[in-house]
Amino acid sequence: MIITGNEPKIMIVDDDPTSCSILNGYLRTDNYQLYCVDNGKEALKLADKIKPDLIILDIIMPGISGFEVCNILKKNETTQNIPVLFISALSDDDSHKRGIEAGGEGFLVKPFNEDLIRAYVKTFLNTKKAFDDVGQRLALNKDFTSMTIHDLNNLNTVVAGNLELAMMIFDEHASARKYVEKAFSAVIRVNEMLKNAQDIVSLKTTCDNKSFNFVNLIDLIKMALALFETEMESKNLKFDLQTESDSVEIYGDSNLLQRVLANLIDNAVKFSWADTKISLAVIKKKKEGGDSIDRAEVIISNMCSPVQKEYHELIFEKFKQVPGEQEKKRGKGIGLAFCKMVIEAHGGRIWMESPLPGEESGAAIHFTLPCLFEKNQTG
């Protein structure tokens, strides 16, 4: 068999060398590229790197279980469409149910049946190819939309420039100048709409192109804080970082998450009253109805004018800002919308609280992220 590099990629994840050897034996005669790893953490790294067309995933493994691996894969837009075939010695209905709820497309019980394995693999690879074909067509449409907006924006700029020149020579013809001014105003408004549309396309593209890895959330926070030391000194602001540990490991895109932290800290610094304190807390949160910790909650709070409740959700929409803060506005009103998109793409949520508990003023932004510490092994 000749490997060209274009063959479907299959990743086998199993800590049992015998199972890996058996599966390799079943599939190596077909036209596939085969990869084997023996734990969930390496599986997530390799999946993000090679983007396999199918993952054959064991459940009971050291560290991260197969159920947890599948959950993480399905929350990542770059890997969520990769079919997952669970393999396990577990044959009870509850395990099958958990596999389906985690996002798995199939479940096979060891020992394997060769014909059934190969039939599943062929079916799932055909499904993945169909998803990829649709995705390519959507990407072409998005590229076309972006280029069209860009070209229209350039043409509109030329029209606006010529109208502005025309107004300069119509000083003695008031009626003619009036019509040119109306046309110029309309063109400027269209230009703003085109720029907004371009920002939306760019924002969505940035969030779609994620690169997930294991990162320490505390390290990201400290790096983001270092960016604002000068601005804080100019307003005599103090910073209080409260954490329960020096390491909170999450699976995410470090660049996107650092941009989120920078946006939120920037807002806190910008709107804080001088000579006050900005607090940032990282709290471990337990799974509902259980003892295991499954997420981290980050709270960034500052002393400022209170934000009315009706704007608590509105501020996370594109191009929306809170009335009454016109003199402090900066950018295009997409900073918090970007934060919301990134946090939700990581499987978390974000919200505002204002005023602060027990106060008549102040505001806090809360967001959660799934984390990977103190997990109970359940596979």
Report a brief summary of the structure:
The chain is α/β, with parallel strands linked by helices.
Helix coverage percent: 40-55%
Beta content: 15-25%
- Mean pLDDT across the residues is 81
Alpha plus pi helix count: 10
- Provide the low-confidence segments as ranges: 326-332, 374-379
Question: What is the CATH superfamily label of the largest domain?
Answer: Histidine kinase-like ATPase, C-terminal domain
Describe this structure in words.
There is one protein chain. This protein has 379 residues and is α/β, with parallel strands linked by helices. It has 3 domains: 9-112, Response regulator (Rossmann fold), CATH 3.40.50.2300; 135-208; 213-370, Heat Shock Protein 90, CATH 3.30.565.10. Helix content is 47%, strand content 18%. The strands form 3 sheets. Strands 2-1-3-4-5 form a 5-stranded parallel sheet, sandwiched between helices. The two termini are 37 Å apart.
Element layout with pairings:
Blueprint: E1 9-13, H1 17-27, E2 33-37, H2 40-50, E3 54-58, H3 66-75, E4 84-88, H4 93-102, E5 106-109, H5 114-168, H6 174-208, E6 213-216, H7 217-226, H8 229-234, E7 238-243, E8 249-252, H9 254-271, E9 277-286, E10 293-302, H10 335-345, E11 350-353, E12 363-370
Parallel strand pairs: 1-2, 1-3, 3-4, 4-5, 7-9
Antiparallel strand pairs: 6-8, 9-10, 10-12, 11-12
Helix pairs in contact: 2-3, 5-6, 6-10, 7-9, 9-10
